[in-house]
Specification:
Elements: H1 5-11, E1 23-27, E2 30-33, E3 38-41, H2 44-47, H3 56-66, H4 79-91, E4 96-100, H5 103-121, E5 128-132, H6 141-146, H7 150-153, E6 163-166, H8 171-177, E7 182-187, H9 201-213, E8 217-221, H10 236-239, E9 245-248, E10 259-263, H11 265-268, H12 284-297, H13 300-324, E11 327-333, E12 336-341, H14 349-358, E13 361-362, E14 364-365, E15 370-373, H15 381-400
Helix pairs in contact: 3-12, 4-12, 13-15, 14-15
Length: about 400
């Protein structure tokens, strides 16, 4: 059956507006469309393709597991799930892992667990969940309500209650909002969709201290910042603040859908049999691929390489900006970078993204004012250089009108 971009408009719900080109094949940091045109991928499937496209190690394990066992009900466990959970616990603060299919589902589990833990250890009155403006935690009704972007949560009727939003990086405001009624604070240690905003380390430490003071759980949403993206296996390791619950997805599966919630023994005990579940969560195919992706990423040479590649991006982007004067700053950490537009180009991030696509570069936006790069952690330096040469041509085109 022959399909084209026009087919999308005929058969797909119109909640997306994808690019005109249709990718059909990828290898490493390169992608080819239906016409055979080649692109360099700085989008990484929105920070998902942590090792690029069709990484040989991931292809190999997918084929091996695909010939063994695809799916079981959660009446049974399986070896890949247990191995992956053990490696996640060994590599982090966590004692226990819950598997889901996505970041939103991992966050949904974290929020339900926080509420259940408060009821078990305190009372039903301890129900307040605080998160941050411009935060993003997924698209289920609970997670989109906790996310701090009303454009995504408004228009669907009454929202889940006892959810409030604080300004990011404003510790004074948070201190005023918190009380013994606070059940949990949920935050991204590096805001992604909100504009690639790195918090002040003192703010993160202060959030931890306030949670301890009020017996509230600290939930880190590391769906986008986790699995090597910042040069640490998880971003919390770089700010030296340990959460009570951590969620991870996107890069965890290297492109295969999987999410996970990590926590301690004491907190995990509140999710007794029957309290929460997922049909596909922890399925052998996903866990086998994620285990291999984690093995490859969690190596000193890969994690140290992320910071070297960040320096290369920043060096070249600085030169581009010296010439065209379009960015107010380059934000972010590691392989999660945001070019924030200055006042002259405010609101035009999508224009730059579309122009880049025309030049053979795939990139993203983070709101209307930030162009976002979230490439493979192992993107070759020559692909960074060539990709940014294409990006410079796109910038020149937008500036020229």
């Amino acid at each position: 059956m022959q399909v084209t971009r026009a087919t999308f408009n005929d058969v797909m719900v119109p909640n997306y507006n994808p690019a005109e080109m249709v990718p059909v094949r990828g290898e490493g940091s390169r992608v080819w469309d239906q016409e055979g045109k080649e692109y360099i991928d700085f989008a990484g499937g929105i920070a998902v393709n942590v090792l690029g496209h069709c990484h040989p190690e991931l292809v190999k394990v997918l084929q091996e597991q695909g010939a063994k066992l695809w799916h079981l009900s959660n009446v049974f466990t399986n070896e890949p799930a247990m191995r992956l959970a053990k490696k996640l616990c060994d590599a982090t603060f966590a004692d226990k892992v819950y598997f889901a299919n996505s970041g939103a589902e991992a966050n949904e589990a974290a929020l339900k667990l926080a509420r259940r833990y408060a009821i078990d250890h305190h009372s039903e009155a301890k129900d307040q969940i605080i998160s941050f403006k411009q935060g993003f935690h997924g698209r289920t009704f609970f997670t989109v309500t906790v996310g701090g972007q009303p454009a995504y949560s408004d228009g669907f009727g009454p929202k889940p209650g006892a959810v409030e939003h604080c300004e990011f990086n404003n510790l004074e405001m948070l201190a005023e909002m918190m009380s013994e009624r606070t059940c949990a604070v949920m935050m991204e240690p590096l805001q992604g969709e909100g504009g690639i905003i790195v918090p002040d380390p003192a703010f993160v430490k202060g959030v931890r201290e306030l949670c301890d003071k009020h017996n509230a759980l600290l939930i880190f949403d590391e769906v986008q910042s986790g699995v090597g993206r910042t040069g640490h296996l998880y971003a919390y390791m770089g700010v030296n603040v340990v959460p009570d619950i951590l969620t991870t997805a996107k890069s965890l599966g290297g492109g295969f859908p999987i999410g996970a919630m990590l926590t301690t023994n004491d907190i995990a005990n509140s999710l007794k049999p029957g309290t929460h579940g997922s049909t596909y969560g922890g399925n052998p195919l996903a866990c086998a691929v994620a285990e291999r992706a984690l093995d490859v990423v969690n190596q000193p040479e890969v994690l140290e390489g992320v910071l070297k590649k960040e320096a290369l991006y920043r060096e070249i982007l600085g030169k581009i900006n010296d010439k065209y004067h379009v960015f107010s700053e380059v934000r972010g950490q590691g392989m999660l970078l945001g070019c924030a537009l200055n006042e002259e180009y405010a609101g035009r991030a999508r224009d730059f993204m579309v122009a880049a696509n025309s030049e053979g570069l795939m990139c993203l936006v983070a709101g209307m004012n930030v162009i976002r790069f979230a490439p493979s952690l192992v993107i070759p330096d020559e692909d960074i250089v060539e990709g940014l040469a294409r990006f410079e041509r796109a910038v020149a085109a937008v500036v020229a009108g």
